[in-house]
Amino acid sequence: MAINDKALSGKVALVTGASRGIGRAIAVALGRRGAKVIVNYASREDAAREAAAAVEAAGGQAVIAGFDVANSTAVTDAIKAIGKDHGGLDILVNNAGVAVNGLLMRFSDDQWKKTLDTNLGGAFHCTRAAASLLLRAKEAGRIINITSVVGEMGNGGQAAYSASKAGLIGLTMSTARELSSRGVTCNAVAPGFIETDMTAEHLPEAQRAKLLEQIPLGKIGRADDVADAVAFLAGPEAGYITGQILRVNGGMLM
Ligand SMILES: NC(=O)c1ccc[n+]([C@@H]2O[C@H](COP(=O)([O-])OP(=O)(O)OC[C@H]3O[C@@H](n4cnc5c(N)ncnc54)[C@H](OP(=O)(O)O)[C@@H]3O)[C@@H](O)[C@H]2O)c1
Questions:
Q1: CATH number of the domain bearing residue 125
Q2: Structural domain count, the chain
Q3: Which residues of 218-250 are buried (b: 16+ CB within 10 A; e: fewer)?
Q4: Which residues approach ligand 1 with their CB closer than 6 A?
Q5: Which of 5, 106, 142, 223 could be bridged to 25 by S-S, CB 3.0 to 4.6 A?
Q6: In testing the pocket of ligand 1, which one of 39, 41, 68 has its CB within 8 Å of the most ligand atoms?
Q7: pLDDT of residue 76
């Protein structure tokens, strides 16, 4: 059941990788709570425009902002402009990510670098650039990092991806400790297996059936399941929660 109050009215939220999948659902969920959402994307501007329209249809405001989270300079410039154009930033959701899969022994330096630079470097770049704005947020700022079940349990064929997601958990807890004195909270949401382009592209039918056997709730998650958890952590009811990992995985890891 989506949270449908307007508790985020007047708040500005940046959601990275919000043009598709989980990020799009998060942008819509924050919009439904009344936030103005900056819909970040890497290359698919059309998808970002469509996501922004969905945020507005849900009751929020939306603008799009294309930048590569792996590019430190681009992130710094973009977040500076967001602070200036929108009068600050209250909520940062580090969602942008890529799944570059392959066996460890054949994994190239470039594949490793792309995965770590995007999934972990991206969250670091955005958090560092946004910290001063979040510390000045009218009510306490919020950071929510989208990690993964495999960041806690590993996965064959996903050494770099799992390492990047495990790193995000460390980044979450350290950020929570560093920014807590000014009331900023930082938490992670760890999805299990969620139906999006990322998973559809990579999972053959037989593997999908095998995976379902490991999920006690017996079904694959929806992007909205993750978005609802993020909307909760961004809201006033989660003000005393920081440094935590909220698992949204159908019981896959408990
Ligand atoms: N799906 C799952 O089962 C699952 C499970 C656990 C965790 N997660 C995590 O959840 C997050 C979203 O996953 P998803 O399944 O929704 O992925 P997705 O459908 O592949 O969408 C990825 C999004 O990230 C954006 N993006 C990729 N690289 C970027 C970059 N360098 N800079 C800015 N934006 C970038 C894409 O933008 P464009 O549209 O412009 O390409 C797109 O909006 C990821 O961090 C992923 O690791 C997913």
A1: 3.40.50.720
A2: 1
A3: eebbebbbbbbbbbbbbbeebeeebbbbbbbbb
A4: 16-17, 19-23, 40-44, 47, 68-70, 95-98, 118, 122, 146, 148, 191, 193-194, 196-199
A5: 223
A6: 41
A7: 98
161 catalytic per annotation: yes
Q: Each residue of 187-241: pLDDT tens digit?
A: 999 999 999 988 876 678 888 899 899 999 999 999 999 999 999 999 999 999 9
Owning domain of residue 89: 12-195+222-246
- pLDDT tens readout for residues 209-220: 998 999 999 999
Query: Given the CA of residue 24, which atom of ligand 1 is nearest to it?
Result: 43
* The ligand 1 atom nearest the CA atom of 47: 39
Quick check: is 16 in a domain?
yes
